UniProtKB/TrEMBL annotation:
Pfam families: CHGN. Keywords: Glycoprotein, Golgi apparatus, Membrane, Signal-anchor, Transferase, Transmembrane, Transmembrane helix. This is Hexosyltransferase. Belongs to the chondroitin N-acetylgalactosaminyltransferase family. It comes from Frankliniella fusca. The keyword Ribonucleoprotein does not apply. InterPro entries: Chond_GalNAc, CS_glycosyltransferase, Nucleotide-diphossugar_trans. Residues 942-952 have a biased composition (Low complexity). The lineage of its organism: Eukaryota, Metazoa, Ecdysozoa, Arthropoda, Hexapoda.
Length: 964
């Protein structure tokens, strides 16, 4: 059915209104397309003469007088109506276009001339990704539709942009946002806005661009309005004014507020809604960041002393009343431009026809925030007060950072939800105590009969949390140690961080702690200034004078901070004075969140496949073995049904191997072990490897990269031991690769990686001969190493020298290598030599630097390569402490011919392995006089060359390293 149109006269001097018929003095303009129940007369059949405008009331009064004075006019009018209806029915029947012909006239490939390029004018209406276009060619006898891109068609209603509650006849929406963009930015900036904050608005949004713009292929649902007669030239004055006119004509009755925005601005919908609901939209309001031009432009913008304009970048808000006064005069404002600045001219137009300036509120500088850093704006740290307080952030020139900012704002929402959850749990605990219930039994409390307080029980996905733990009020005494060993020590915070139990007692504040302090201070200042406006004062943060910090893994982080603040009173007697405030704070944890993943992909609740149905939906042929096996495994409630899935399902519909728990556990781990001498240590490694891997039928292989040693001649013994191992386990690949060169670990690992063929089983585990491990380590390697996505650098536990740790027992070897505490060893956080990765990922980052010779540095180089190429290759680095991967103590021999950086690293590692802080303290107490005598002698004598200690100093192996 062809559409009908509402018609009206327009000014003859407006060049942007296309006239139907090509040459008449009158004209037609498409205002709105609606479904017509009956055919209509083609406008091609009429020539409307030019009309001289007169007041509507006068015209109506004149017509009534004429009809009363001349009764014959009634008969003529009635006859004309009857004749007109008859002619209309005949012409409408002849010009009716079937639906299939209409579809043929509107191809979906997007080809054809742009709107307005044909011999006749085209009136186009586009909205929310759908446009309406109709052309009238010379001699045409029926409606035709010009070629349109995909997503544009006659059957769509442009009002589908509106929220359901804001359509005609419904409740008005809160805000309609018009985003000014350009055709070249549609796939990037516009798409980013639509993907982020554009879909969270309490209202509607549309993107306005040139008349030839079409939705990009990557976002066919983009709500695009191609403004008729507008291009993407700069300055965008015409685009801005036409956009406001369009918004008023189409959505003026459906929204309370209208926001003019650029495509490089980020809007926080929740804060925008809070602001707009606090302002009366029935009054003329023009809200934005007020400006009068920069220093060079001051006095050149034709502004009166009391006039200003709203800067367009951070966004401009119009109430419905303001837009109703300005929109009818858009053409006048376009014809009377004084400058090339779009926002200046818009402010002048609002001042003239709405009678209001842009709001002078200084607070708008922070609410509608503009960063003057240009292209680098909002690319760094986002934890700033300005970012947290702002409703809009401008400019975000790099569209990818729109997603980054959006994710950060999502994190803030999550933190707010956590805080609300904690408050509710505390209220629940308080009420349970008042009602005489035990908070520890909150899961069993019922609000009414068969109405539990917590419907989801512990272990369920929707469980709301343990109120007994989360509902405790803030306190530094939540955790009560049972003995002296469980007392949590405090770290002292000043210019540096001081820790009694750390191997480096004085050190710089770590980035994680510094970030936590920033969060705590920001929250504290927000609470202090929550009612600053009512009290006429504001308190600003300066610095932390000193503080204390401790971490409780069960409850959270505790802080005692002494803050230097500045008190500013701006109401009444003004004053500015420095003040100090002592704050006791706690960042409470909200419980553990556990997420099950397989090779990095989250495993969610999935319904079991129906093996009795074929792909076409028909009954599949009988498969008693597979179907019964799966059904039995599922119905019996087995937790580890992954073992049965590969045999049942084989491969998925895309031809890819199904990822399940069993496939992860069956990954083959290729051990690569560089070795030079040290046969006795190698015997221990082979014993552990055979006991934990081979006897348990683990999918493993071992490649020993053997170098000659100057300290011992054990090549034959090493080969014999490996040959014996191979004879006992012929099903495993166990090999020795001899290298006739001086030892270089980087070269050894490259040679070992070359022994493994590229393919599914190229998981490499670079290990040292001093390591002991068990099967739990193998499981962590398989789970944490993901091809093309993640390399695993485990943090190993390194033993102290047993002669120092077990001095009282007289032991020289640790009785239990897996005894993990601060007295037996330390976590080697800065060691990267033990690594698990895929060969393809090793090649992707460039492999090892084989020019590095001797001890160390090759592992740090590889780690840096992974970190540097993380963005390009999308292979992340995962680090975690592995309590089942232990580095057994041995004396570190540092070659004096090493490079200075390698020699320094080697000596540092040797000193770290001699003992911990507690052993040093015990030695000082036991041998205090000897230590003091040595210190006095060292201060009085010249510095020793090479950093070595004087012979004969120190009283034990545990004291030689630290004392020297």
């Amino acid at each position: 059915m062809p559409p009908s149109f509402d018609l009206r006269d327009e000014d003859d001097d407006d060049p942007d209104f296309h006239r139907a018929g090509g040459g008449g003095a009158g004209g037609l303009r498409v205002l709105r397309s609606v479904s017509a129940p009956a055919p209509v007369i083609s406008p091609q059949a009429f020539r409307l003469p030019a009309l001289r405008r007169r007041p509507a009331a006068a015209a109506s009064r004149s017509a009534s007088v004429m009809l009363l004075r001349r009764p014959r006019r009634w008969l003529q009018l009635c006859a004309g109506l009857v004749l007109g209806l008859a002619v209309g029915m005949l012409v409408g029947t002849a010009t009716r276009m079937p639906d299939d012909i209409g579809r043929q006239c509107s191809p979906s490939d997007g080809t054809g001339p742009p709107p307005g390029s044909g011999p006749a004018g085209v009136a186009q209406f586009a909205g929310s990704g759908f446009g309406f276009g109709f052309g009238y060619g010379p001699g045409s006898e029926r409606w035709t539709s010009p070629p349109s891109p995909p997503g544009y068609g006659d059957e769509h209603d442009p009002l589908h942009l509106l929220e359901p509650g804001s359509k005609p006849g419904g409740r008005r929406g809160l805000v309609m946002v018009g985003v000014m963009t350009a055709d070249k930015y549609l796939p990037t900036r516009a798409a980013a806005v639509w993907d982020t904050w554009g879909k969270e608005l309490p209202g509607g949004i549309a993107f306005f661009s040139a008349s030839y713009s079409r939705p990009p292929p990557n976002r066919p649902d983009l709500p695009l309005v191609a403004l008729k007669g507008v291009d993407d030239s700069y300055p965008p004055q015409k685009k801005s004014f036409r956009m406001l006119e369009y918004l008023w004509e189409q959505y003026g009755d459906h929204f309370e507020w209208f926001l003019r925005a650029d495509d490089d601005v980020y809007v926080r919908p929740d804060k925008l809604e809070k602001l707009l609901r606090s302002v009366d939209s029935s009054k003329p309001q023009f809200i934005g960041q007020a400006g009068r031009g920069n220093q060079e432009e001051f006095g050149l913008l034709s502004l009166e002393f009391d006039e200003n304009f709203c800067m367009g970048g951070p966004g401009v808000l119009f109430s419905r009343e303001t837009l109703s006064r300005v929109a009818p005069h858009v053409k006048h404002c376009l014809k009377n431009l004084y400058t090339t600045h779009e926002d200046v001219e818009l402010g002048r137009c609002v001042q003239r026809f709405a009678g209001i300036p842009c709001t002078w509120s200084y607070e708008m500088q922070n609410i509608l925030y503009h960063n003057s850093s240009g292209n680098e704006a909002f690319t760094g740290n986002l934890k700033h007060r300005e970012v947290h307080r702002a409703i809009t952030l401008h400019p975000i020139k790099q569209y990818r950072h729109l997603y980054r900012v959006h994710n950060y704002m999502g994190q803030l929402k999550i933190q707010d939800s956590w805080q609300q959850s904690l408050s509710l749990h505390r209220d629940i605990v308080a009420m349970l105590e008042l009602l005489g219930h035990n908070p520890a039994r909150a899961d069993d409390v019922q609000l009414a009969k068969n109405v539990p307080l917590f419907p989801a029980k512990r272990g369920d996905r929707d469980y709301l949390g343990d109120s007994a733990l989360l509902g405790k009020p803030p306190s530094l005494n939540k955790y009560r140690p049972r003995c002296e060993a469980e007392v949590l020590p405090w770290d002292f915070i000043s210019r540096s961080l001081f820790s009694a139990g750390h191997s480096n007692p004085r050190r710089r504040i770590e980035s994680a702690l510094r970030e936590g302090l920033d969060d705590v201070v920001r929250e504290v200042m927000d609470m202090i200034n929550a009612f600053s406006k009512q009290r006429g004062r504001v308190i600003e943060y300066r610095e932390i004078l000193y503080g204390y910090h401790r971490l409780n893994p069960l409850y959270g982080a505790d802080y005692i901070l002494d803050l230097l603040l500045v008190y500013k009173k701006y109401r009444g007697k003004k004053m500015t004075v420095p003040v100090r405030r002592h704050a006791y704070l706690q960042q409470q944890f909200t419980g553990l969140e556990i997420r099950e993943t397989i090779d990095g992909e989250e495993v969610g609740p999935q319904a079991p496949p129906d093996l009795t149905q074929s792909a076409e939906g028909d009954d599949a042929p009988g498969q008693p073995g597979a179907g019964a096996s799966f059904r039995e495994a599922f119905e019996n409630g087995l937790l580890r049904i992954g073992d049965a899935l590969p045999a049942i399902l084989g491969r998925d519909g895309r031809g890819e191997e199904v990822r399940d728990e069993a496939s992860v556990r069956h990954k083959t781990i290729n051990f690569v072990l560089p070795l030079a001498g040290r046969f006795s240590t190698f015997q221990r490694f082979v014993s552990v490897f055979e006991e934990e891997c081979l006897k348990n039928a683990e999918q493993v292989s071992l490649f020993v990269i053997l170098f000659p040693s100057e300290q011992e001649v054990s090549v034959n013994e090493t080969v014999s031991l490996m040959s014996s191992l191979q004879r006992r386990w012929p099903q495993h690949r166990l090999a020795v690769v001899p290298v006739f060169d001086s030892f270089a670990r980087a070269l050894a690992l490259e040679i070992g990686a070359a022994q493994v063929k590229d393919g599914e089983d190229d998981l490499l585990f670079f290990v040292d001969v001093d390591m002991v491990f068990n099967r739990a380590t193998l499981e962590r390697i398989r789970v944490n190493t993901i091809r093309g996505r993640q390399a695993y650098f485990p943090i190993v536990f390194s033993e102290f020298e047993p002669a120092t740790v077990y001095r009282d027992q007289g032991l020289t070897v640790a009785p239990n290598h897996f005894l993990i505490n601060q007295d037996t060893g330390y976590w080697r956080q800065y060691g990267f030599g033990i690594v698990s990765l895929y060969k393809s990922d090793l090649r992707r980052v460039g492999g090892f630097d084989t020019s590095i010779r001797g001890w160390g540095k090759e592992d740090v180089d590889l780690y840096d390569k992974f970190v540097a190429s993380m963005a390009a290759n999308n292979v992340s680095v995962f680090r975690a402490a592995d309590p089942n991967l232990v580095h057994v103590f041995h004396i570190v021999d540092c070659d004096p011919d090493l490079e200075p950086s390698q020699l320094k690293m080697c000596k540092g590692t040797r000193a770290d392995t001699l003992g911990g802080v507690s052993q040093l303290a015990q030695g000082i107490f036991a041998e205090g006089k000897a230590i003091l005598d040595f210190a006095k002698k060292r201060r009085s004598s010249a510095p020793l060359t090479g950093g070595a200690a004087a012979p004969g100093t120190g009283t034990g192996a545990g004291l030689k390293g630290p004392a020297s």
